[in-house]
């Protein structure tokens, strides 16, 4: 499986994440240091008028008929770039399937082929970021999530030409409850400005490197 540009991290305490999003941590006992597709990450969603945190698998299964016939595992899709793809036609229009993925960093590979390292990106004034996502409870798989992407700002290339759709905190309610027109507008509005980004270059190997070094706790927004 190609894991290029499919890496994020949440270097924060459960209490800080719950406070940032005014969410019930529920039975969330620990936060993984970093997450790649197919692994579990933290998701914030609303149900019954309350915001909740829980662990879900990063990646929706893409069912392939021939793969099922021979017993192969279905591909995992953790990024939503094309809203017109039939795979998302029911999910993206229904606010019930919207969620926010709390992250402090997202990662991209940089360097030469065969020796790529992890570059981490964060936002200076928003230490816990809100990544616009979708989540569903999939039969035979369980709760899954995927994050929406957009054209990258100038801080991201050459590592990638896409980046997560990061929400301002006053956009979260619109994301969780808005129309499909709101979803489209948020994906195609300008990304966070490049000068808001911190870029951390590391010597960690892309495929088996570690999480971003922790930072001193910044005031929560």
Describe, in plain words, how this protein is organized in 3D.
By secondary structure, this protein is mostly beta strands. The strands form 3 sheets. Strands 3, 4, 7, 8, 11, 12, 13 and 14 form an 8-stranded mixed beta sheet that branches. A 5-stranded antiparallel beta sheet has the order 2-1-9-10-15, with no helix packed on it. Strands 5-6 form a two-stranded antiparallel sheet. The C terminus is likely disordered.
Q: Which features characterize this protein?
A:
globular, single chain, 221 residues, mainly beta, 8-stranded mixed β-sheet
List the helices and strands and how they pair.
Elements: E1 7-9, H1 14-21, E2 35-36, E3 40-47, E4 50-58, E5 60-62, H2 65-69, E6 75-77, E7 79-80, E8 98-103, E9 105-110, E10 117-123, E11 129-138, E12 142-151, E13 162-164, E14 166-167, H3 172-177, H4 180-188, E15 197-205
Parallel strand pairs: 4-12, 7-12
Antiparallel strand pairs: 1-2, 1-9, 3-4, 5-6, 8-11, 9-10, 10-15, 11-12, 11-14, 12-13
């Amino acid at each position: 499986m190609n894991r290029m540009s499919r890496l994020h991290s949440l270097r924060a305490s459960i209490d800080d994440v719950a406070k940032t999003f005014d969410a019930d941590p529920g039975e969330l006992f620990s936060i993984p240091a970093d997450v790649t597709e197919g692994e579990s990450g933290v998701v914030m969603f609303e149900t019954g008028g309350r915001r909740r945190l829980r662990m879900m698998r990063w990646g929706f299964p893409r069912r392939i008929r021939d793969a099922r016939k021979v017993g192969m595992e279905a591909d995992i899709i953790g990024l939503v770039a094309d809203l017109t793809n039939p795979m998302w036609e029911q999910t993206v229009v229904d606010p019930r399937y919207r969620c926010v993925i709390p992250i402090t960093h997202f990662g991209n590979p940089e360097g030469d082929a065969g020796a790529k390292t992890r570059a981490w990106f964060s936002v200076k004034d928003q230490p816990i970021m809100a990544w616009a996502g979708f989540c569903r409870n999939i039969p035979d798989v369980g709760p899954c999530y995927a994050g929406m992407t957009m054209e990258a700002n100038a801080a991201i290339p050459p590592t990638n030409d896409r980046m997560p759709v990061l929400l301002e905190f006053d956009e979260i309610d619109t994301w969780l409850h808005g129309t499909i027109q709101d979803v489209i507008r948020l994906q195609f509005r300008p990304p966070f400005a490049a000068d808001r980004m911190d870029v951390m270059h590391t010597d960690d190997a892309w495929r088996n490197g570690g999480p971003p070094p922790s930072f001193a706790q910044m005031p929560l927004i």
